[in-house]
Amino acid sequence: CGMLLGLLALCLAGSAAFLRLDYCIIGAGPSGLQAAYFLQQAGRDYVVFERSHAPGSFFALYPRHRKLISINKRHTGKWNSEFNLRHDWNSLLSHDRRLLFRRYSRDFFPDADTMVRYLEDFASLLKLQVQYNTAIVHVTLEKDERAWNGHYFILTDQDRQNYKCSSLLVATGMWVPNVVNFPGSEYVEGYETVSINPEDFAGQTVLILGRGNSAFETAENILGVTNFIHMVSRSRVRLSWATHYVGDLRAINNGLLDTYQLKSLDGLLEGDLEDLAIIKDKKGKLHITLRFYLENRNISAGIDSITLPQDELDNFATRAPYDRVIRCLGWKFDFSIYNRSLRMMPGKGNTNKYPQIKPSYESRGTRGLFVLGTASHSVDFRKSAGGFIHGFRYTTRAVHRLLENRHHGVPWPSTVHPITQLTNSIIKRVNEASGLYQMFSVLADIVLLRENATVFEYLEEYPVGVLAELEIQTGRKASDGLFVIIMEYGRNFSGADKDVFYYNRAVGEAQHAWQSNFLHPVIYYYKRLPTEHEMRLRPPDWPLPRPHAVHHIVEDFLTDWTAPNAHILPLRRFLENCLSTDLRSFFAESCFLFAFTRQKLPPFCQQGYARMQGLVGSQGLRHHAVEAGLLEDFTLTDFLGDSRPDSHQGSQDQLLRDHTIPVRPLQHLVNTKEE
């Protein structure tokens, strides 16, 4: 066996040579590089296959007009790096502070060439194992019971070199243009090849097929030089600020909506593109008609022999001829390189451009094959950000953690805390966690209760779609109940037909938190782990099945959920009701009093004061607490009675100064110093 890139083992089997690896990644785009980073950090055997000479080849071509629509917010007023990633939609996750995108561009909407340079630096500075100029042209399975998943993946490149992989991570993205075939579609120019020089469209009339960001991006580029632009698609325009889905039309590209609604000749139409037909006249003009007009007619016979819609309806909307028709219908996944043995099937309905995968991002047809990045967007299509860098950088990390547990026995990362820290832990995460914020309704933090709910284990950013499999997928036990912390929009707030700017659209009072519209934290409580059956029967548009209890933290204009009365107090009381315990924090004097007056101390006193832990009190601190109403002004006379002689007043003052407790029988409960 020899070595390739320091990692590939060359194994000879008969006359065929195989380069054998644990993990093979197809594609060195953002998701492929992100997966490579996590594998490299874990010391795993992997390689990334990239057909181009450099990473990020998609961004070398697209978007055609070179302006990204992923925001690069360089300033937030905060220094918390995790919080700042909420507003950085371009950076990949790494330990290297040099690889933050704000160091590469000052533009709010950066240039695509900057993304190419960023990805090149990400691969080179982190020394990721990428094999360039290697196009994988065929993938098949080889059954072997000794393999991790019961089979190996056999990859073949353009030079007929074979690679044998235990696990396959597909990060090829979506790059095959969506094409609609209809009579005359040969006259249509594609977004991928059409000219981007506005002067080439001067004085022309243009029809654009499609209504996504690529269509409006193309229209925006030529808006000022054309006679007019018409845009046709089967669905109405969806504005991202109404749907809260970043893949819908963004404001940066919607100039044509102005010219349409303000009656400046441009316009939008709805219709099924497969019903259209295009006829070219002798002057080269393109006429739009309907397919059924061409039935039993010879299209090559000429336009004069063909009935056009305007012949029967003289105000037909597209009766004016066009100089150019441009197709801007987006992309789909390339299924062509996968052998039938892998059972890589398209999704159903509006996700048919994506491969079918589980909520764990593993293929439904083949164990050990995971789909990453844009191609994995079927899990949250039109719901969250899983099809974009600021979303799939977190789902890629989640897949890595699933693989670490499955193949290497490394449980999902977690931290363990006393139950008294539960409120603080949740508040901290909902205020700074970027994965929860970007992948709302898809990734969630999980709190697993332990030791009769006296401690808890905290797991971050777990895919809620596989909540029923949590114990298998993470290596953690969920036998004593759990909380699920997730971010959600209001149930009826998002949609293409919604008015998201209506009066009283925001909720400000904690008692109405369940009616919050904007993105806000929601905490689900389950006494036991939900089952697969319960997950399948969950209510429509619910990310989770019905819990035993649920709590909404009221939406906040600043997305700052730290208000003591509006945010923290209702959350703490919800947690207390679920756990039947007191989660408040107490001064040592209160804990000392509870030791005399209660059969059971609150957890804070049990885990702090009674174990000789906590903050040592002082006269000034006690006086401040009394003045603030945080502590009652108990004195020794409360216990000894007012009939005691005044001569004891001096001993009371001495007691407060020395902080000694002359009660020996209680030494097993309290410290001899006031904590």
From TrEMBL:
Region forming the signal peptide: 1-17
Pfam (any one): Pyr_redox_3
Listed GO CC annotations: endoplasmic reticulum lumen
Oligomer and partners: Interacts with SEL1L. May interact with OS9 and DNAJC10. Interacts with TXNDC16.
Family to which this protein belongs: Belongs to the FOXRED2 family.
Function (record text): Probable flavoprotein which may function in endoplasmic reticulum associated degradation (ERAD). May bind non-native proteins in the endoplasmic reticulum and target them to the ubiquitination machinery for subsequent degradation.
Name of the protein: FAD-dependent oxidoreductase domain-containing protein 2
Species name: Centropus bengalensis
This protein's encoding gene: Foxred2
